[in-house]
Design a protein that fits this description.
Layout: H1 3-14, E1 25-28, E2 32-36, E3 40-45, E4 50-51, E5 54-55, H2 63-78, E6 89-91, H3 94-100, E7 118-122, E8 125-126, E9 129-136, H4 139-148, E10 150-151, E11 154-155, E12 165-171, E13 174-175, E14 183-184, H5 187-194, H6 196-219, E15 222-233, E16 239-242, E17 251-255, H7 271-280, H8 293-311
Antiparallel strand pairs: 1-2, 2-3, 3-7, 4-5, 6-7, 8-15, 9-12, 9-13, 9-15, 10-11, 13-14, 15-16, 15-17
Helix pairs in contact: 1-8, 2-8, 5-6
Length: 316
């Protein structure tokens, strides 16, 4: 079987582009299909991939399973120890969900297609900011730094090169957008909107998650260059870490041995897809092109590598 034929076979057998479960209240994000019940949420990570605020027409086979496995690992890891981080995850066990959710899954439900890519979580009121933490110079932060010497209002020393480590991690929030582009804002802007006490708590907790996660990832040969986190509050007011955590979709993962000041290294995340799109001639204003089979396959392998290094386990 040729490489292209084998890639098509993988995509046909394993890709989940969208779901229609007929339960709860359904709403759809760029990557996830969510079903809301009274107090719970069923989150299904599909194999859709987004870039430059567009959902691409080509799925990445098994990507949703990778995101779920990595997030489940971090939720568990961060919630242990002397100062646990509270989170929204209840279970990833599809067989247990019908007993725990407020509404049972329908009879004849195809569990296998959702196995490994579904999370039952506590419902929360989502805080309307992406909590971005940056530890290394890359992406939009590098562009802004070169222009102004600061990132989201945080002044940084002169002379920092692409791919270099910041003196210390910085918190750079962004407004959340259901569609379109998230907008970087200053911490003061965030505090004006949600209050200083809440903003300080989110900053401190986000920096703590980043520091712990980055320290652990370093022992696995991965640099976490940056990440974005989401938080929500329960009806009782408890702050919970929600959505996904330290995944290749929400973070830049660099091979530790490849990091050198002056160059942003190849990474275990969707930057590979962004780079291909940048070189494809796509105008970012019209429907994006299909990804070549080779790009989809290599992206899949990068996600699998990140999962294996972080969790210590292989999906297959």
């Amino acid at each position: 079987m040729s490489y292209n034929s084998s890639m098509h076979a993988i995509a046909a057998n394993t890709s989940v582009r969208e779901t229609h479960l007929g339960i709860g209240t359904r709403f759809r994000g760029k990557v996830r299909d969510c079903y809301r019940f009274d107090k719970h949420l069923l989150i299904v990570s599909t194999d859709r991939i987004s870039a430059f605020d567009w959902v691409l027409p080509t799925p990445i086979p098994d990507k949703g399973r990778v995101l779920t496995a990595i997030s489940a690992f971090w939720f568990d890891w961060l919630s242990t120890g002397p100062d646990p981080i509270a989170h929204h995850l209840i279970t990833t066990d599809i067989d247990a969900m019908s007993e725990l959710a407020a509404a049972c899954l329908p009879a004849g439900f195809d569990r296998e297609s959702l196995r490994g890519r579904s999370m039952l979580v506590h419902g929360t009121e989502v805080i309307p900011f992406e909590c971005v933490v940056r530890g290394w110079m890359a992406g939009s932060a590098l562009t802004e730094y070169r222009r102004s010497g600061s990132i989201c209002g945080v002044k940084l020393p002169a002379g920092l090169a692409a791919g270099s480590q910041l003196p210390e991690p910085i918190f750079t929030p962004a407004t959340k957008a259901d569609s379109g582009h998230d907008e970087n804002v200053s911490f003061d802007c965030m505090a004006d909107r949600i209050g200083s006490e809440a903003a300080n708590l989110l900053r401190n907790q986000s920096l703590e998650v980043f520091r712990r996660g980055a320290a652990y990832a370093a022992t696995r040969g991965i640099i976490v260059a940056d990440t974005k986190l989401e938080w929500g509050r329960t009806m009782e007011g408890q702050l919970l870490l929600i959505d996904e955590v330290l995944t290749p979709d929400s973070s830049r993962f660099w091979p530790a041995l490849a990091a050198v000041p002056g160059r942003v290294p190849d990474s275990f995340d969707k930057q590979f897809v962004r780079d291909w799109l940048e070189q494809s001639g796509w105008d970012k204003a019209s429907q994006p092109p299909d990804l070549p089979d080779s790009v989809a396959a290599q992206t899949r392998e990068k996600y699998f590598t990140a999962c294996r290094l972080i969790t210590g386990k292989s999906l297959y």
